[in-house]
Specification:
The protein is mostly helical. It has 2 domains: 54 residues, no CATH class; 53 residues. It is built from 4 helices and 2 strands. A two-stranded antiparallel sheet has the order 1-2. Strand 1 and strand 2 form a beta hairpin. Helix 2 crosses helix 4 and helix 3 crosses helix 4. It starts with 16 loop residues before the first strand and ends with a helix.
Length: 121
């Protein structure tokens, strides 16, 4: 009997459902791995230990795009906020980024300005 006959559509939304992407047709129940005991019911629609998969909520800062959003206008805005006396953390929160990303972007911009100033006669 193949493993595909042991699971139903309901099983695919269960937190214990398991499958291998590289080997279609291999799927089953990992209840024993999660709980340490045998499942007390048959697999499929008659399952009594079904638990809905948890919804994964991504942190909004981590879902934001990367470095390309550090335009000269955004860096200038960050520098103005820093000049007003705000900390890197406060500016990062206002701009929707992390403190380290902000610090690195401002440092890169300042380094570029110093290099450009050194090139002038």
């Amino acid at each position: 009997m193949s493993a595909t006959n042991l699971v139903s559509e309901r099983c695919k939304s269960c937190r214990y459902y398991w499958h291998i992407n590289k080997a279609p047709g291999y799927m089953g129940c990992e209840y024993i791995l999660h709980t340490g005991s045998h499942r007390p019911c048959p697999p499929g629609d008659a399952c009594t230990v079904y638990r809905k998969k948890p919804v994964i909520v991504r942190h909004p800062m981590k879902a934001m795009p990367g470095p390309y959003r550090w335009t000269p206008s955004r860096i200038r805005r960050a520098e103005l906020l820093l000049a007003e006396g705000l900390t890197y953390r406060e500016v990062a929160e206002k701009m929707g980024t992390t403190r380290d990303a902000l610090r690195h972007a401002v440092e890169r911009a300042r380094k570029k300005e110093r290099e450009n100033a050194a090139d002038l006669p």
